[in-house]
Amino acid sequence: MVVLKGLKQVFFGTYARGFITSYLLFMLGGAALLMLPFSIQSGISLSWVDAIFTSASALSTTGLSTIVVKDTFTLFGQTVLILIIQFGGIGLIMMVALFWLIVRSKIGFRQRNMIMTDQNQLSRQGIVRFIRDVLIVIFSVEALAFVIMTIYLTSSGYFVFKEALFQSFFTTISLFTNAGFDIAPNADSFQMYSGDYFMQTLAMVLMFMGAVGFWVLAELKEFIIAKIKKERFSFSWFVKTLVVMHLVIWLSSALLVILFESNNFLANKGPFEMLYYALFMSLTTRNAGFSTMNVTDFTGSTQIFFIFLMFVGSSPNSAGGGIRTTTFLVLLLTLRSFAKGRDRVVFNQRLLKEETVIKSFLATFLALGIIAINVLFLTIIEPHEILHLMFEVTSAFGTTGLSLGITGALSNFGRLILIITMFIGRVGVLALLLMFRSTGTTGSGLTYPEADMIVG
User: Which residues of 192-230 are buried (b: 16+ CB within 10 A; e: fewer)?
Assistant: First the structure.
């Protein structure tokens, strides 16, 4: 009995530990389902390492894979995989909260804390309404995209109706959650649609909505309702910031891709074709993982730039990963404030909390440390170029899923490193730090004399 209480304290003693343990158990449970005999196609063998790798990649909506999904899993196995992706993309705790809402169960203080951690919220206030609004928008968008894609794939002759149904079901969820998994006939991601601008446009809309942040989706619902009722509605400054940041990074990145590749991959492409390659690839590197071409065809400078984009990632409280666009913004604002001699960081005529600034630097520093350490380990045990390993690890941490083609060639130890990296990328480095807090920790209450130290 004492042992059980001790284990409960270790794994569920605080809401942060409960949050991370829930994801860990779900990942292992997903791997067990993928290992079932009727999940795997006849004549195909799947190791436990590959099953856990696939489950971790799906839960974190990364898309890195050591196997070919369509050739390895049956229809049941593929369905299990896409459900893991759906839960991981929206948030496991938020999906559990959906069940609580359906059965009309009261969501308690502890559960609200776990939802806050899962969804990167600042407050428990209004969190139930937030969940409801976000889920309504997500499922509505996915359902509409599913219908449109099914009709288009069938009418365009890509697939017969029955095949188009499951292709659309799988691809729509994978796109919205920025997962990067595909069941394309040749396992070539979105390369079969490289000349199809309708499919690319639909894909970019889904990827953008999944990565721009759930706060945006919640306010989008309120905006639509206000328009229907002919009432006034104004988006919050935070939502405006998320959208602007996402658009600015996306469009500026596309311009840089065109600049970097104008004499290489894009040299013989027409203006429209060039634009779509640049727009799609600069958006997908922000955590989606789909590609309309082979990333190895790009120059080393573009690949390094993609590493930066994967590191920054998408908006907070979204299906994407990375350190988040707002973290990057706070870093830039802090540098500007320091350069101008200001002692506080100002944004949009508002003073940012010092805790927010500290969190931003902590998240960035820890992310860089995790990536650096894992790359170091991989350079010791794997025979691949360091650029390829950096690309792979950053893709895993940023839950992006793009690869330079070495994922399947990694050793079991190398795959284990990526599994850990993807898991950390999903739960977040700050949530990982919160694991070490004791219940009810509020500070020591002690004060000490101030001291200065020479730095820089």
Answer: ebbebeebbebbbebbbbbbbbbbbbbbbeeeeeeeeee
CA–CA distance from 37 to each of 40, 72, 370, 441 (Å)? 6, 11, 36, 47
Q: What is the dihedral of CA 275, 280, 285, 290, to 10 degrees?
A: -150
CA 440/CA 444 separation, integer angstroms: 11
DSSP state of 445: -
Residue 120 is encoded by which pair of tokens? 């990167």
DSSP lists the bridge partners of residue 351 as 346
More confident residue, 59 or 111: 59
Residue 451 belongs to some domain of the structure: no
How many structural domains are present in the chain?
A: 1
Residue 168 CA to residue 180 CA, distance in Å, equals 14
Alpha carbon separation from 320 to 91, 127, 224, 246, 401 (Å, rounded): 11, 20, 24, 12, 11
pTM beyond 0.85: yes
Pseudo-torsion of CA 58, 63, 67, 69, nearest 10°? 70
Q: What is the pLDDT of residues 333-367, one digit of tens each?
A: 999 998 988 888 888 888 888 888 998 999 999 99
Q: Tens digit of pLDDT for each residue in 172-199?
A: 999 999 998 999 888 888 999 999 999 9
266, exposed or middle or buried, with CB in 10 Å at 0-12, 13-18, 19+? buried
Tell whether 442 is covered by a domain. no
CA dihedral 386, 387, 388, 392 (to 10 degrees): 100
Instruction: Tell me, yes or no, whether 448 lies in a domain.
Output: no
Strand partners of residue 40: 73
Angle CA 150–395–60, to nearest 5: 60
In angstroms, rounded to a whole number, what is the distance separating the alpha carbons of residues 29 and 59?
11
In a domain, 456, yes or no: no
Domain that holds residue 184: 7-433
Write phi, then psi, for 177 (nearest 5 degrees).
Answer: -80, 0
